[in-house]
């Protein structure tokens, strides 16, 4: 009697068998899930609870219902901080995305100097935000900083931090200078996944570098751009230490964005219940913008073409 090894007899069985190849068990994600629950979900739940309380940080929180939330929607300072946060996020995205995209595509090439220049360019990403903010604060000091000497040469007011527009642009520039290498790395990885055969076919058809970039590179990096943009927007909405060190929310309240308003409310006036409401609103705004971007870009329906390989 001969014995035969069972095989998948139908196309569905073969597809299921191939689809399970290379998939790790769910237990592999357990440490990450536990970490996320302990350090993200539980603190967020506590913040949401405190947003319905009156708490000074010393005594026990007392429930006050929707008092903090009704105050939030009537607070003109909160409205200004929300507008400044969205404005700073927009400026950061417009400033960082094109530069990071072009640098990432360039860094994905095979130029002789690419490795050295890329390593130098990624140095700001290794520095702490506090150190970078202190560095730029010293450089832009109108009395003792470098800006006092070179500002008039390049047409920049040495007291650039004294104007509302200048202070906001400086905060956006400093954040971009530090985190643009991170997004460049994302685009570099995405550009290296584009099949070389597409460029070879385009070259045969007579397409130059510019046409290849707009007709091949950009479409292929659409989901990479969505990933980078979501991370960039969430990061820009949570700027804090840069504002704290460089402007302290000034001049006046012209750089008082939501994270700084939350800090000032909670740790300077000790109104931690209202600060928790601000923090919760910030989470809702950041999550909402991220979900809208994912939905409009079609990122949520993306499927891997390498799954099962």
UniProtKB/TrEMBL annotation:
Q: Does the keyword Ligase apply?
A: no
Q: Where in the cell is it found?
A: Cell membrane
Under PROSITE patterns, the record lists:
ABC_TM1
Membrane topology according to the record: Multi-pass membrane protein
Species name: Streptomyces salyersiae
| UniProt similarity note | Belongs to the binding-protein-dependent transport system permease family.
At the top level, the lineage of the source is Bacteria
Q: Which intervals hold domain ABC transmembrane type-1?
A: 82-293
What PANTHER family does the record point to?
Answer: ABC TRANSPORTER PERMEASE PROTEIN, INNER MEMBRANE ABC TRANSPORTER PERMEASE PROTEIN YCJO
What stretches pass through the bilayer? Answer: 33-52, 81-108, 115-140, 160-180, 230-252, 272-294
Name the Pfam families on file. Answer: BPD_transp_1
State if Cell membrane is listed as a keyword: yes
Q: Which keywords does this Swiss-Prot/TrEMBL entry list?
A: Cell membrane, Membrane, Transmembrane, Transmembrane helix, Transport
The protein's name is: Sugar ABC transporter permease
Show the SUPFAM superfamilies listed in the entry.
MalF N-terminal region-like, MetI-like
């Amino acid at each position: 009697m001969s014995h035969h090894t069972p095989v998948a007899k139908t196309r569905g069985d073969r597809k299921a068998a191939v689809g399970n190849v290379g998939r790790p068990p769910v237990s592999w994600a357990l440490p990450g899930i536990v970490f996320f629950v302990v350090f993200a979900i539980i603190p967020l739940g506590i913040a949401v609870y405190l947003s319905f309380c009156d708490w000074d940080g010393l005594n026990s929180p007392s429930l006050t219902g929707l008092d903090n939330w009704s105050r939030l929607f009537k607070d003109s300072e909160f409205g200004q901080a929300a507008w400044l946060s969205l404005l700073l996020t927009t400026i950061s995205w417009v400033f960082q995305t094109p530069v990071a995209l072009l640098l990432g595509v360039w860094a994905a090439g095979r130029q002789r100097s690419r490795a050295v220049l890329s390593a130098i360019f990624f140095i700001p990403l290794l520095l702490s935000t506090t150190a970078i903010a202190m560095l730029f604060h010293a450089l832009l000091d109108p009395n003792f900083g470098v800006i006092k000497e070179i500002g008039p040469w390049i047409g920049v007011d040495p007291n650039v931090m004294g104007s509302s527009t200048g202070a906001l642009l400086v905060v956006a520039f400093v954040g971009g200078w530090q985190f643009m290498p991170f997004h460049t790395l994302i685009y570099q990885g995405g550009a290296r996944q584009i099949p070389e055969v597409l460029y070879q076919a385009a070259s045969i058809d007579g397409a130059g570098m510019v046409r290849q970039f707009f007709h091949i590179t950009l479409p292929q990096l659409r989901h990479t751009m969505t990933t980078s943009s979501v991370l960039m927007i969430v990061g820009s909405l949570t700027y804090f230490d840069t504002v704290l060190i460089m402007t302290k929310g000034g001049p006046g309240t012209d750089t008082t964005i939501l994270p700084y308003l939350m800090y000032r409310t909670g740790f300077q006036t000790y109104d931690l219940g209202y600060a928790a409401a601000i923090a919760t609103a910030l989470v809702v705004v950041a999550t909402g913008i991220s979900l809208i971007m994912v939905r409009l870009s079609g990122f949520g329906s993306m499927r891997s073409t390498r799954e099962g390989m």
